[in-house]
Amino acid sequence: MSARDYVEKDYYAALGVPKDADAAAIKKAYRKLARELHPDTNPGGEARFKDVSEAYDVLSDDTKRREYDEARSLFGAGMHRPGAYAGGGVPGFDLGDLLGRAGGQSGGFGDVLGGLFGGRGGGGQRTPRRGADVEAEVTLAFLDALRGVTVPLRLTTTGPCSTCRGTGAAAGTAPHACATCGGAGVTSRSQGGFAFSEPCKACRGSGRVVETPCPTCRGEGRASEGKTLNVRIPAGVADGQKVRLAGRGGAGERGGPDGDLLVTVHVTPHPFLGRKGDHLTVTVPVTFPEAALGAQVPVPTLDGPVTLKVPAGTSSGRTFRVRGRGVPGKKGDLLVTVEVAVPATLGKDATTALEAFAAAAPDDPRAHLTL
Fold first, then answer.
1. Are strands 261-267 and 242-245 parallel, antiparallel or unpaired?
2. Which residue, 293, 269, 295, is CA-closest to 281?
3. Contact 235, 148 (CB under 8 A)
4. pLDDT of 267-317, one tens digit each?
């Protein structure tokens, strides 16, 4: 994104939110527009999708949003088009020194001013800018999320135009320095005792002119492109967790680093395994004789079955802990809850045996329920 975008583009209007919108409202508006304008479902919405993505990249980042608001406030209010103090006015206050200091900083608001005015005699030099972060979503099976998996993701990102290789000019042509500003990107005008600098109207502050624009990117030098990435989701990822993959997002500008890819993971439920933080959970049915007399019961784990010793007299609903068999790579355990299974039907022999047991059982389990 060029510095002149801070002056010319209204990112709030692009997302349809007020200037005091909070982060949640900005994210909600972006997601709604991104679904409507995504090139995969709306082929005619590429340009609008690009504008919306660019707006979200700035407004979702606290630092970028602050710089953007400051730049628009500076250029849109009384000090419109700052320049150098030329004598007269307020003694001791040199706007040229202000811009010189801003252009010499390595980050913050100085990047905005330095990029727009080219520093002092900078010939339209532009500072590198980091690429935009790209968001994606993926749905994984429960076991894949626990063990880790590589999945293909189809993404739409903005990067250097592949047709013109980022120049913005059609094949066989090249941009040339703007004749109006001499490639500086700014022009000067005098008003009273001040000399004011402003973005060159002929080249819109870029310092160059593209006579024959590239038909793919329309002279912008950047275009949306679809690509498929094989992305490794690490073991143990939880439902709703965001995985940040550094350098897999939008391409950087003017030699800047690429942005990151943020993948939101959704995990489908498992038929009998569950998750509780770093612990895994499972409910294991046992028969009444196993619960009453004690038994060795096989229990499934991610590394194969283990044997759980159920002591005699175990009640239904009791939970046992199998150490170290929780979420891979974490310090969790497997929490095993035993549940006494009651058969829906009984054969003749089983009925006779249970009747004999009932007659022989000396205790009434409800004896304490007396008011």
1. antiparallel
2. 269
3. yes
4. 999 999 999 999 999 999 999 999 999 999 999 999 999 999 999 999 999
- The Cα angle at residue 148 between residues 144 and 153, in degrees rounded to 5: 85
43: tokens are 């082929």
What percent of the chain clears pLDDT 70, i.e. is strictly above it? 80
**So what's the pLDDT on residue 96?**
40
109-132 confidence digits (pLDDT tens): 444 444 444 343 444 445 677 888
What phi, psi does 24 have (nearest 5°)? Answer: -65, -40
State how beta strands 334-340 and 279-286 pair: parallel
Distances (CA, A) of 21 to 55, 129, 140, 261: 13, 25, 33, 25
CA distance readout (Å), 138 to 78, 96, 276, 348? 49, 51, 21, 54
What six digits make up the tokens of 72? 């628009």
pLDDT digits (tens, 9 = 90+) for 123-158: 444 567 788 888 899 999 999 999 999 999 888 777
Structure tokens at 219: 């002279």
User: Distance of alpha carbon 150 from its chain centroid, rounded?
Assistant: 18
pLDDT single digits (tens) 33-86: 888 887 767 776 777 888 888 888 889 988 888 888 877 776 543 333 333 333
132-163+217-269 under CATH 3.20.20.450, yes or no? no
Query: What residue segments make up the domains of the chain, in order of their start?
Result: 132-163+217-269, 273-360
pTM: 0.53
Exposed, middle or buried: residue 43 (CB in 10 Å: 0-12, 13-18, 19+)?
A: exposed
> Structurally, what CATH architecture does the domain formed by 273-360 represent?
Sandwich (2.60)
